[in-house]
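A.,

Following up on our hallway conversation. Structure tokens first:
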């Protein structure tokens, strides 16, 4: 026969183990149900050295499907390539703002802009830019036109633009806008004029 004190001790230990299990389950459920704070993991760009200049950014507006010329004062470096990068970063800062007229996905950024002679600009976007981009003919067209028109209007001599994602070719931005070939700046400027309500 098992001594009574051993039965009581075993019962108390089992009850304690059961209680701890229930408590652990409750704590886990509470932690999982709490929304996780999103952390901005984008790398910080080094501060731009250079005088502030007035530039024209071509900002997309989803509400009426238009592209609007917007003046901005931004610090501009002396190098031609770095200037093009700062133009697009200034444009993206508008799109990533909480009151953005043309929302881009969290973490979207321009990795680099390469200016290759004669007259070719290569815009390298990060994967978050494309992966988180909304799908749709007009929203994708607005994004592409905005990027290309902003670079070409502020960088003399650019006649063709290629868009890469993480340094690689990609067929489309988010299913519609063709990224597989070069964009002709003249044709894109005509599209931008139409989107601005021009002739």
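Then the amino acids I'd put at each of the 199 positions:
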């Amino acid at each position: 026969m098992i001594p009574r004190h051993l039965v009581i001790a075993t019962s108390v230990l089992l009850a304690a183990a059961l209680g701890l299990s229930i408590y652990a389950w409750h704590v886990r459920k509470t932690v999982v149900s709490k929304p996780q704070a999103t952390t901005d993991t984008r790398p910080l760009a080094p501060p731009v050295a250079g005088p502030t200049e007035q530039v024209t950014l071509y900002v997309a507006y989803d509400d009426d499907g238009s592209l609007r010329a917007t003046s901005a004062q931004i610090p501009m470096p002396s190098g031609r390539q770095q200037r093009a990068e700062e133009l697009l970063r200034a444009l993206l800062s508008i799109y990533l703002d909480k009151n953005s007229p043309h929302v881009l996905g969290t973490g979207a950024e321009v990795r680099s802009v390469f200016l290759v002679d004669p007259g070719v600009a290569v815009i390298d976007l990060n994967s978050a830019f494309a992966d988180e981009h909304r799908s749709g003919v007009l929203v994708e067209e607005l994004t592409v036109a905005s990027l290309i028109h902003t670079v070409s209007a502020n960088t003399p001599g650019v006649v063709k633009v290629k868009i890469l994602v993480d340094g690689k070719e990609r067929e489309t931005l988010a299913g519609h806008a063709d990224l597989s070939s070069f964009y002709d700046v003249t044709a894109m400027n005509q599209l931008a004029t139409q989107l601005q309500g021009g002739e």
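The first strand starts at residue 52 and ends at 61. Curious whether your intuition agrees with the design.

B.
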